[in-house]
Amino acid sequence: MQKPHTESRSTKQPSTPDLVGSADALERHDDLWIEVIRKMDETYSDLVRYQVELEEKNAALEAAHQFISSVLASMTDVLIVCDINGRIEEVNPALESLTGVPEEGLIGRPFQSLLTTECLELASGFAETIRNNAVHDCELTLRAAQEDVPLAVNCSSRYDSRGRLVGMVLIGRPVGELRRAYEALNRAHDELKQAQSQLISAEKMASLGRLVAGVAHELNNPISFVYGNVHALARYRKRLRTYCDAVDASDPPESLTALKAELRIERLLDDLDPLIRGTLEGAERVRDVVQDLRRFSSGQKGEHTGFDLVHVIETAVRWVTKGSHPGAQVETQLPERVDICGHAGQIHQVVMNLVQNALDAIKGVDGARVSIRLETLTHADRLVAGPAQAGFSAVRLCVEDNGPGIPEPDLLKIFDPFFTTKPVGQGTGLGLSISYGIVADHGGRLMAENRAEGGARLTMELPA
């Protein structure tokens, strides 16, 4: 049986439309792969760009973090970041250094736990206060590792990205540094005022010295007149006495005798002698005062010469006690005369300073007393160098008082320039410093100590 003709034709010769369809399918398949590859390239490019951007942002974030860390580390002020309940979230190294506690031990603690008890009530109100106003310059005391540290604290609000209040930031500056700076400034100001006062005082003393020298020079002439005239009166008195005796011996008439009795000539002649002696004594005292004034006004000038130290001490004590401390009880133990070589005016200034300080120290003290003692020392007793003269080699002047004494820390500082325990305006702190220099220039020593029975003792030793 023969197969149909149609089947044989279809098997041997495929139709043209089937071939065209297969080609189209292959072409679409290739296009899909190209599109996939293109999408993959775009995705890879986006990934590379995102990676670059991410690395740049990470670098910027790391730089910002490093910058903030360096700023926090360099701050000397205390920084505390808290949540709204006062729990610590972040601190800076300054707080760690003060408290001695690392950051890990501070995170999560209430910031009030770092403060002293008396500050807790004030600090507890910060959370409510900062909702309306910031806190400025509130003084709190921090419990530090060594000792409590007062802080001047500013507290402000902290908000999140949505503007909600999430906490507070506290910044505290140690007040001790400010106080030390203010104290140093005050000390410098006081020293400046004292220096200014000393300059004014020095100018006044220079003017006073010129005035005293001029007055002393002007007084010399009238004193010389008085002194010379009184000596002449003493001679005239002798002549009058001789004449009156001669008249009495010549049997004068009764009228002349009556006139002599009426005028009391005899009593007048008897009074002339004490009157002349008193006038001479007064003139000599004025002359001595003028010499002392001229010696004092000479200041640092002049060569060293011999002088009586006892006379200088007596003059200095008299000037101080009668000038500013009338009625002060001053006991002196002085020999009749002690001759030394130096500048009398400078030693006079030293003695006045020592006596003045002793009298100032006993103000308001019951039974106040100043004792002044001058001793001559042998070679074995002396503390200063110098050749032996007339049986002694040095002199020691002790000025003692029964006041409160000198505080032990001040004993080594009382001879420093501008150091004084007196209120501002009552002392320049230069008296003992200048005196120390004067005594040293004379080859001696000036020393200060407290007496066992109370009070202070200042000792001046000079080579004979």
Automatic annotation (TrEMBL):
It is an enzyme of class 2 (transferase). Residues 64-109 form the PAS domain. Pfam families: HATPase_c, PAS_4. Signal peptide: none annotated. The keyword Protein biosynthesis does not apply. InterPro entries: HATPase_C_sf (IPR036890), HATPase_dom (IPR003594), His_kinase_dom (IPR005467), HisK_dim/P_dom (IPR003661), HisK_dim/P_sf (IPR036097), PAS (IPR000014), PAS-like_dom_sf (IPR035965), PAS_4 (IPR013656). Its EC number is 2.7.13.3. Residues 175-205 form a coiled coil. Keywords: Coiled coil, Phosphoprotein. Residues 1-22 are annotated as: Disordered. Residues 1-10 have a biased composition (Basic and acidic residues). GO terms for molecular function: phosphorelay sensor kinase activity. Residues 214-464 form the Histidine kinase domain. The keyword Phosphoprotein applies. It catalyses: ATP + protein L-histidine = ADP + protein N-phospho-L-histidine. PANTHER family: SENSOR HISTIDINE KINASE (PTHR43065), TWO-COMPONENT SENSOR PPRA (PTHR43065:SF42). This is histidine kinase. It comes from Thiorhodococcus mannitoliphagus. The lineage of its organism: Bacteria, Pseudomonadati, Pseudomonadota, Gammaproteobacteria, Chromatiales.
